[in-house]
TrEMBL record:
Source organism: Plantimonas leprariae
Family to which this protein belongs: Belongs to the DapA family.
PANTHER family reported for this sequence: 4-HYDROXY-2-OXOGLUTARATE ALDOLASE, MITOCHONDRIAL, DIHYDRODIPICOLINATE SYNTHASE
Keywords: Lyase
SUPFAM superfamilies in UniProt: Aldolase
Signal peptide: none
Any GO CC annotation of this UniProt entry: cytosol
Binding sites annotated in the UniProt record for pyruvate: 216
A single MF term (Gene Ontology): 4-hydroxy-tetrahydrodipicolinate synthase activity
Name the UniProt record assigns to this protein: Dihydrodipicolinate synthase family protein
Amino acid sequence: MARLTEDAEGVYVIAVTPFTDAGGLDLASIDRMVDFYEGAGATGLTVLGQLGEAPKLTAAESRTVVERVLKRLDGRLPVVVGVSAPGLAPMRELSDAVMGEGAAGVMVAPPWTLRTDDQVYAFYRSVGEALGDTPFVLQDYPLTTNVQIAAAAIERIVRDVSTCVMLKHEDWPGLAKIAALRRASETGGMRRISILCGNGGLFLPEEMARGADGAMTGFGFPEMMVGVVNAHAKGEVERAQDIFDAYLPLARYEQQQGIGLAVRKYVLAKRGVIASAHLRKPGAALSPADIADVERLLERQTRRLAEIGA
């Protein structure tokens, strides 16, 4: 598999980790899930992300998930693996292992202890040194990491760490940051890197308009991200907005703190992608009222999609 580069674009779906009702890894569901994402038009997959319940997996389970996904894809799509860890040694160990299995690159979020731009820069400089020639994604997700990364700090990292090839942009609000980074690359302040956006795709049309290259996020209907990105690439901005609008109510509901992943897994199980909607503890469970909300939103979404012919 070719390695991740600054030219990456499209939709890299953040994959869930399927479990059985008893809490064990569901390998058969991993296979179905991979087939589903590929069939939905994903450009690539990202595994062991925060919404892949990576912190709830053992080291051996993490390796098993990556190996299963890579085996199922057999090189057809690139795979990015989350390797964030409190220290560089375990990060390097997992990174070396998954790259040896055929991953295209890895993703690294900053530890919550970083407080200044200089600390953020020093951390990612160390990441680049620790990971050697492995291309990595800088995950900028202050809503969960509590680390604010200014555009100027990202510019500095990109200038000095050649293996940083992508920004996973999940700042909120963060549209101005995308625009600032694109200006910097256009004026020679930094090389141009890929920018893929998260947050469940809630701002995807606006992010694409500001210069993003696509999405790296999850949603029970990845067809939404694929449709928006593809339409935008064709210059069909209004069509992209129509597709986005049809899915927005459910996407908004899924982005709730606490139950969001439970909603996503419920939808994926309902669609037959995974056998069980089980989350490992600690994890939220949907109440009957939550399920009723989701079912109503699904019905309305189906009608709206039919109306716009999507």
